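Objective 1b of the project was to move from sequence-level analysis to a structural picture of ligand recognition. The entry below was assembled by the postdoctoral researcher (A.K.) and checked by the PI before modelling. It contains the amino acid sequence of the target and the SMILES of the bound compound, flavin-adenine dinucleotide.
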Amino acid sequence: MCFTRYTLEQALQLRDPPNSILFQVSPHPAGYFAVLGLHDAPDPDRPDEWTFFHYISFPEPASHVNERTTVEHMAHQKQLAKLFMGRVAKAFEWMSDDGRSNAWYGKLNHWDPAAEGHQWNNRGGRVTIAGDAAHPMTFQRGQGLNHAITDAVALRDGIVGAWKVGVGMQVEERPEMIGQYEDGMVRRAGEEVRLSAKNTQMLHDWEMVMNSPVVKSGLNQGKREDGRKV
Ligand SMILES: Cc1cc2nc3c(=O)[nH]c(=O)nc-3n(C[C@H](O)[C@H](O)[C@H](O)COP(=O)(O)OP(=O)(O)OC[C@H]3O[C@@H](n4cnc5c(N)ncnc54)[C@H](O)[C@@H]3O)c2cc1C
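Corresponding predicted holo structure:
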């Protein structure tokens, strides 16, 4: 994950024509997946203060411990970027070591709460978990926050349903209420964890990318208003 502030000219080139692209994803035939987006623009009139977010993800054995330093990660990302063209290549080429770029490494990991041995003890409903604490998932499908919010709503609904005005919640009702919340969350989010993992793998497999509905039908839907093909 790289976060970079560029010079005025570079930032404008990455957004040329202005406001054209907010977020760009680029799969590569060699099994890489590049992302480039505008992360933060505190002042729309000061492109040299904008922060861009960009990374190129790459397959790595699950057991492999990546020991690159931050500097080495940046060098590795720059190296991978040479396989790309256009603004994606530029975004990495222009990363500098003057403090305007930074990089973090995060292995694409997940935790399926429905998998055997992944259950937790909720201590009679006194403690439970939600969001990434319960079901961290790979993020290319963009569903982690959605499920975290759904968890919060389900838990809130459970508490409201079990709450009796003037009395509160009966202690004996608590295990069942929390149990129901956890069962629903584990089923729903567990499926999403598995779908997300599949999606992440597919995005790093060129043949699967090219055979995906996005490429086969989504990108051939028609023309834009200005006449250019979508
Ligand atoms: C690159 C990327 C892209 C993503 N894109 C999307 C997307 O498009 N759509 C989507 O739905 N999801 C997306 N996600 C996933 C989403 O960000 C997470 O699923 C979501 O943030 C989880 O929310 P959370 O509140 O459960 O956990 P977090 O957001 O991780 O919040 C946990 C908080 O607890 C704090 N904390 C940790 N330990 C302690 C402690 N001991 N004491 C006090 N505080 C502590 C942390 O600092 C953090 O602020 C993306 C994730 C990544 C990495």
